[in-house]
Each structure stands twice: as C-alpha cells, then as structure tokens.
Design brief:
Length: 389
C-alpha cells in the first residue's frame, strides 16, 4: 500500500506518540458516527469536552490558561488526523476555536485572556471567528460592520455570513470598523462579542457540504460590547486577522492532503475488490494510472506543506516569501483534494454517488476548502504581490 508515514526529520517521537493517541481518539469517538451526524446536520456538544480531555483543544496555548505548549507540527498533526474521519463539517466546528481564539491569545488583555481562553480549552465554551460579510469575503479591508464607542461600550451594527460554529458559539471574535472615516485597513479593529449579547441574532445556513457543522448568518443590531473586549489596539486589527489567516491556511493545507488520502484509500480498496468482466479494477492500467496520479498529487502537496511548516518553525525565509508559500500550499493541497475526490468517485462508479461513502462526502466538501480561508484566485494574486510580480 502507499507509504504516507510521516517524514522522521519533521516529526519527533513525541509528535508520533501524540499522533497515535489522536488517531485512536478519532477512530473511536468520531469516525463511526460521522454519517449519522452528517444526516442530522449536527454533532453532540459533548465531543468538545472529550477532545479537551485528550488535550486537543489546548495544543499551542499557554499552560497558565490550561493549554499545552507545542510547535507547528503538533498543529499539523491535529489537522491531518481529525480529517481522517472524512467529515469536514465535524472538523470545522470542533476546531473553530483554532481561528476564533488565536487573536485573543496573541493580542487580548490579560483580563480578556483569563476570562475567555480557559473555558474554551476545557470544552465548556465554543469560540468562532466572524470576518466575512454579505458584500465581501477575502477583501477584509472593505468590511462595513461598524463599532462606535459610546461611553464604556462599543455599539456594533452590521452583518457577518458563512460563520463556522456561528449558531453555537459562546464567544465570537469579530472584525469591525472603528474608524468610520477610513475605508481601508487602517480603521479595522477586533472585538470579542459574547453569544448572549442583546441585539445579536443568528440564522442557520444550508450548505452543499459540511452538513454536520453549523454555519450562520449573524446580524448585529445596536449590540453593546464592553470596551474591555477590544482585542489589541483600536484601528490596528487588520494585521491581527491577516496573521490569523496564514495559520488557518496552513492547517487547511494539511487537512486537504488528508482528505485526498482518504479518497485514495477508499478508491484503492474498491478497485481491489470490484471486478469487471472477471478482472479487478486495480489490474486495469487506466485505473492504476488514476491511482498513481492521485498519489503523486498528495505527495507533492504534503511535501510543500511540511517544508513550509519547517520554514515557519525555523524562521527560514522572509515574511513575504512565507506568506506566498502558504497561499500556494493551500492552492496545491486543495487542488489535490479536488482531483482525488473526483477520481475516487469515478472509480467507485455508482457507489461513489451514494451517500455514506467517504469520497461522496468529501466530493461535496471540496469547494468550501478551495474557497474558505481565501479563494484560489485570491491566493494566487496575493502570492504574486508578495513575490513582487
């Protein structure tokens, strides 16, 4: 079978032990139930607590807040192993704190961090990120949601859309415009808005994929937010969100490679068992070539992702180059996922069109991976600008 074992020069024995425990958790607590959760369009909230007990939610956060210090490869392992369940909706919502909480951890006040981070890492509260608006996605500088300081509160008005964990979230890190006179990045700030805030309403959205993940349209109607919930410095939140996106894109790259691998494994298993005209599909050259194309694309994307992670950990390369590589890793990995999902469904034939196969589910979820966190077109253009092209 294909050898996708982690490269030893990237992963230490500690990394491998962590991976083994996480893989066992996913196999027992997630994978057997994903089809049912997908059909139910939700999963039990108790899963957050189980993940917290294993230490998954606290990876990379300070011990003072209940976290466990870790390097970038621990984060990649989480992305890879959670994705092995083949259900992006579960992974997206279970790990929504990985995009909702980092701005608080990196830029929040001591009081805000102590109040918000521990209950999320314990699995008691759910954190989400709200940046995208109905009138714009990746163009963060053009956002229109406003936050006007009145006394000790910011008054927030506006809308956010496509928000992962938006229906469940107890804490929402929101991008707002605090300088109405500015139409660009200089007037943007980050606010922590609590889920029970008066004036906040939420609507669930129906989706092509990620059924088990709740995705919401949020509306802020004169929501009063204590000024102490400001994350970082007023009007300087643009970089907060941009840095957050880079981490998200790296994690999505690792996830996409794992989803592609799941498709390949299912296709290989089917090709070995399925016979046509007395011969197994795996004995037919056209099928073997399809499988090899899948393997090559996964390997190339994963090698780029691992190399990028090493560069980030070792601080090799200038910042612009690393941003460009991050964008390209996401593009290459999600293209590999798209190719493998398409080819797996083709190899499975009629079974590939049936609900319940992993490839069918991943086929439906490809586009959210290619669009979410920055579309393929935005990624290529951003890379070109970073490289001076």
């Amino acid at each position: 079978m294909f050898d996708f074992s982690p490269a030893p020069h990237y992963f230490s024995p500690e990394h491998n032990a962590f991976r083994e425990g996480l893989r066992d958790f996913v196999a027992k607590e997630i994978t057997p139930f994903v089809s049912d959760w997908d059909e139910a369009e939700t999963f039990p909230r108790e899963l957050y607590g189980k993940a917290a007990d294993l230490g998954i939610l606290g990876v990379g956060y300070e011990e003072a807040y209940g976290g466990t210090p870790a390097d970038v490869f621990h984060h990649l392992i989480i992305s890879e192993e959670i994705a092995r369940c083949g259900a992006g909706g579960v992974a997206a919502s279970l790990l929504s704190h990985t995009i909702g909480l980092p701005p608080v951890a990196a830029h929040g006040s001591a009081e805000l961090k102590q109040r918000i981070i521990p209950p999320v890492l314990r699995g008691e509260k759910i954190a989400a990120l709200a940046v995208t608006e109905p009138g714009g996605g990746s163009d963060v500088a053009a956002l229109k949601t406003t936050a006007v300081l009145e006394g000790d509160d910011y008054v927030v008005n506006g809308e956010k859309v496509f928000i992962t964990s938006g229906m469940r979230a107890d804490y929402i890190t929101v991008a707002v415009r605090t300088d109405p006179a500015s139409k660009g990045p200089s007037g943007i700030s980050a606010l922590l808005i609590e889920g029970d805030a008066e004036g906040l309403s939420r609507s669930a959205l129906k989706k092509m994929g990620w059924w088990a993940s709740d995705t919401a349209h949020l509306r802020f109607d004169h929501v009063r937010v204590p000024a102490r919930n400001l994350i970082g410095v007023e009007n300087q939140g643009f970089k907060v969100f941009m840095n957050n996106f880079n981490s998200e894109r790296l994690g999505m790259s690792a996830m996409a490679c794992s989803y592609a691998q799941v498709c390949l494994e299912e296709a290989v298993g089917w090709a070995r068992e399925r016979k046509t005209f007395g011969v197994s599909l795996s004995e037919r050259q056209v099928i073997r070539h399809k499988l090899m194309d899948m393997y090559a694309r996964i390997d190339a994307a994963r090698c780029l992702t691992y190399d990028l992670a090493w560069r980030l950990r070792e601080h090799v390369g200038d910042p612009g180059e690393l941003v460009a590589r991050t964008c390209m890793a996401k593009v290459l990995a999600t293209q590999a996922m798209q190719h493998c999902a398409d080819q797996a469904v083709q190899i499975l034939g009629g079974m590939g069109f049936m609900r319940g196969t992993r490839s069918e589910r991943i086929y439906r979820e490809v586009k959210v991976m290619m669009i979410g966190g920055g579309s393929e077109e935005i990624m290529k253009d951003l890379s070109a600008r970073q490289l001076g092209i």
